[in-house]
Design brief:
By secondary structure, the protein is mostly beta strands. It has 2 domains: 6-140, Thrombin, subunit H, CATH 2.40.10; 170-247, Thrombin, subunit H. The chain contains 4 helices and 16 strands. Strand 7 (96-103) and strand 8 (110-124) form a beta hairpin. The mean pLDDT is 85. InterPro entries: Phage_phiJL001_Gp84, Phage_phiJL001_Gp84_C.
Amino acid sequence: MMGYSDEFKTHLASGATTLCRTWAIMRSDGAVFGFTDHDVNLTFEGITFKADSGLTAMALAQSTGLAVDNTEAIGALRDAAIKEADIEAGRFDGAEVRAWLVNWADVSQREMQFRGSIGELRRTNGAFTAELRGLTEALNRPLGRVYQKPCSAVLGDRACAFELTAAGYFAELAVEAVEERQVFRFDALTGFDDAWFARGRLIGQSGACVGLSGMVKRDYFDEQTRVIELWAPMRAPIVAGDMIRLEAGCDKRMETCRLKFNNIANYQGFPDLPGDDWTVVPPSQSGISVGGSRR
């Protein structure tokens, strides 16, 4: 019971406890959802934890050291709680999860038992199962620089430092025509070079796709119509009239960084790194290794 308050310790030692579990899920868009296995709603930390959500949790596996804590949450898909469309759109991917053991008779007596994020999320037959990963999961991610010719930064991130809000590097406009959530056609998208948005992003600004994004595969002209094709369909319905934002793309080459973005000072690649052909060149047989031409 290390870490519990004195009042909570006294309650746990009483032999007649009034305990339940609660979970809070915060998505990247700021939406917060609260759940409890108690039979009435509970409220603390500005969150209402709903009792009718159908959410339950499996045993929490915790350990000392750097091993990853993990558990699973299982629940029914309900319009009032977690919607199937939101799961399909990926809105719960990577969402923050917190779990408490709570005295429902006095919610000030509680202890957080888990904090992490949603990992793999599966849904079937009107229900979902979410894998919950502890904070030590971040230690499994590879860190450090990669020595390669192309730039290793993501356009606009901290390493790149380029401002995608600069004039000429984005466009905000309404969808004119869309095919299968993947191919967009515009008659009024002018003022940008051919392929300007290739490898960039399309971000939903309104409608069912608000906050969702897709990577641009191709940006080209079909006669007078400009076509923006994504690598994969948007994960929610998108229709004519919905507002979107298009951001310029980067192919990671030094020439693009210098000429298109004027950002060569932040280029994160190694353009002079020898290629594979250089590494397999056999040693010289002539005995002359001064670097000059042979005569």
